[in-house]
Amino acid sequence: MAVVGSALFADAGLTAHFGLNSAKLVKFLAEVERGYLASNTYHNALHGLDVGQTMHFFLTEGVGLGNQCSWPEKLAALTAALVHDVGHRGLNNNWLIATDDPLAITYNYTSPLESMHASKVSKCYRVLHVGDK
C-alpha cells in the first residue's frame, strides 16, 4: 500500500501541489497498511488500495470528477479512499450495536465503525510527529 499509494498521490499531482514529503507519505501509508486487519478477507489493505486506485481513476482520467474538485478535495478523497476501512473486523454497525460490542460502547452506539476508523487513521498520522516539539 505504501509504495502504490504514494505513487497514486504523485501521479494525481498531489505530492507536488502540496509539497508533500514523500518519505513521510510512505511512512504514513505503511502505518495505515499495518492498521488494516490481514485476517479480514475483504476489508483488508488490498481492499483499501483497490478503492484508492479507483478514486485515483475518477480524479485523473478525465471522467469529470477531477475537474470538479479543488486540490484539497482531491487530497481528501484519495486519502479517505485509501484509509476508509482501516481496522475493520468485518462486522457492521447494526451488529456491533445490537450485541453491545465494546466498540459500540466506546463510541456511545453512534457510528462505531466510522468513529473507530477515524481514530485509527489519526493515530497513523501521529506517528509522523513522534518526537516533534
Can you walk me through this structure?
The two termini are 29 Å apart. The model has no long low-confidence stretch (mean pLDDT 91). The chain has one domain (2-129): Catalytic domain of cyclic nucleotide phosphodiesterase 4b2b. It has helices at 2-11, 14-18, 22-35, 45-60, 65-68, 71-83, 93-98, 102-106, 112-126. 66% of the residues lie in helices and 0% in strands. It contains nine helices and no strands. α1 (2-11) packs across α3 (22-35) and α1 (2-11) runs parallel beside α4. The protein is an all-alpha fold and 133 residues long.
Keywords:
133 residues, single chain, Catalytic domain of cyclic nucleotide phosphodiesterase 4b2b, 0% strand
What is the count of helical runs?
A: 9
| Residue-averaged pLDDT | 91
Q: Which strand-content bin applies to the residues?
A: under 5%
Number of beta-strand segments:
0
| Domains, number | 1
Question: From the coordinates shown, what is the CATH architecture?
Answer: Orthogonal Bundle
Helix content: 55-70%
Element pattern in H and E: HHHHHHHHH
Please outline the major beta sheet: none
Specify the CATH homologous superfamily.
Answer: 3'5'-cyclic nucleotide phosphodiesterase, catalytic domain
How much is the radius of gyration in Å? 16 Å
Task: Identify low-pLDDT runs.
Answer: none
